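Slide 14.
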Amino acid sequence: QVQLVESGGGLVQPGGSLRLSCAASGFTFSTYAMSWYRQRPGKERELVATITSAGSSTDYADSVKGRFTISRDNAKNTVYLQMNSLKPEDTAVYYCNARRVGYDAYWGQGTQVTVSS
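Slide 15: predicted structure.
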């Protein structure tokens, strides 16, 4: 069955870094665009970053541009989110998403990121 398993979340001080990973299985990973979303306390889920299936193009929310980097390794069926210069407002549950036109989209279970001193 399809699985997206996020890892790498945790507690970090402001200005620190974390690297999230999302391991995929059960579908043809290399044919899906991958995204990271987040849901901050009391807010709706929002798109953070997207990478195309081949990894040739990326896009970011304005709030994370220059601080976050999305990447993927199709040989390992894994997508990453490198988060630098973290701010308290980055505190959220981060979700991995896989999508392909004409197919069902898939979601991971989420990983908590807390930025606090």
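Speaker note: The chain has no helices and eleven strands.
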